[in-house]
Amino acid sequence: MNMTSRFSQRIRLRHLHAFVATAQQGTLVRAAQQLGITQPALSKTLNELESLAGERLFSRNRQGAELTAAGARFLQDASRVLDALNVLGRTLASDSEALPAPLHIGALPTTLVSLVAPVVVGLQQQSPGWRMQVTTLANDALMMAVRSGQLTLGIGRMSDPSRMEGLNFELLYHETLRLVVAPHHPLLHSDVSLAEALSWPLVLSPRGTVPRQNAEALIVSHGLAVPKGCVETLSVTLARCLTLQYGYVWLVPYGAVRDDLFSNHLRALPLPTQGMAEPLGIITRQEALSSPEQQRLIAALRQRVLDVPV
Question: Is the pLDDT of residue 147 over 60?
Answer without folding.
Answer: yes
